[in-house]
Amino acid sequence: xxxxxxxCDRRGSFDLExxxxxxxxxxxxxxxxxxxxxxxxxxxxxxxxxxADKITLLVRGDDIGSTHAANIACIQCYRDGIVxxxxxxxxxxxxxxxVRLLKENPGLDVGVHLTLTSEWERMKWRPLTHAQTLVDPDxxxxxxxxxNQSFPPKSSLxxxxxxxxxxxxxxxxxxxxxxxHLPRISHLSCHMGFAGLDPAIxxxxxxxxxxxxxxxxxxxxxxxxxxxxxxxxxxxxxxxRFVASIEQLQPGTYVFIEHPGxxxxxMQAIGHKGYENVAEDRAAVTGVFTSPEVKAAIQRxxxxxxxxxxxxxxx
Length: 315
Known about the structure:
This protein is of the alpha/beta class. The chain folds into 2 domains: 5-52, no CATH class; 55-314, Alpha-Beta Barrel (TIM Barrel). Helices cover 44% and strands 12% of the residues. It is built from 11 helices and 8 strands. α3 (68-79) links the parallel β1 and β2. α1 runs antiparallel to α2 (30-52). The model is unreliable at 1-28 and 38-49 (pLDDT under 50).
C-alpha cells in the first residue's frame, strides 16, 4: 500500500468535511479506520527516514555592529545569500545601525557576540561598564585574549589581573542592552573565544545563558565543523572549494563561521600585524555567501539552511 502526504492531507480534510456534513456520525467504518492508521504510520516512518538523511548547515556571520561595512555585508549575506545567524557586538560604534537593520530583517536570527577584546590597531572599543581589570591604560579592551607575538607584552586579557565580577557585570550589560533593543536574541557566543581562557569564565557564560533563557554555541554537541573553502584565497577559488565541500556532505548537522565584509575604504583601514588584508579577505567571504553557484549547490544537494534558533527549537 502506498501512502503519500497528499493522502494524509486528504484524510484530515475528509474527517473535517464529515463533521460539517453530519453531526450524527458516531463511528468511523472499521476498514476505513484501519486504512487511516496504516497511512499515518507509513507517513511517520517516511518522516523518520527523511530526518535520518537530512543535511543541515548553519552558516553564521560574525561581528555585525563592528563597522558599517560589516553591517551591510551581514545583511546582504542573509537577504541574498546563505547566512541564517549573525553575532552582534554590543560595545562597538556601529551597534545602533546594526539594531536598525536587524529590526528591518526580523527573520534573521541574532546572537550576542559577547566582547572582551578590541583587536584592531586603528579602531577600538571600550566596555559598557566600569571594568578596570579588563582594559589597557587608555581604557580600551585589550587586543588579544592570549599573548600574541605580533603584539607587545601585556596586550592580552590573560596577562591582566582580570576579576570575574567585572567580567560578569560587563557581560550582563551587553546581554541586557541587546535584549532591550532586540528581544528576539536567541543565543550567546564569545568574540575571539574568550570563554576558553579559564573554566570560571566558561561557567559564567553558561550560567548567564541559562539565566536569560539563551542558547550557547556548546548546545550543538553533535554538530560538525563544515570544511568550507580551506586555505583558498581568492573569491573564485573559495567558491569552487565551497561548492565541492557541499557536494561531499553526508547526513548530519554542520556549522560554518566567518566574517562578512566589504572591500571599501572603511574596512581597508582596519587590521593588525599579521592580518592586514581584512577588507579583501572579508569581501571574499561575502562573495562566497552570496554566490549563485553556492546557492545552486545547496539546492542540488538538498541541504537545509538553519539558524541557532531553528536548531534550538528542534531539541
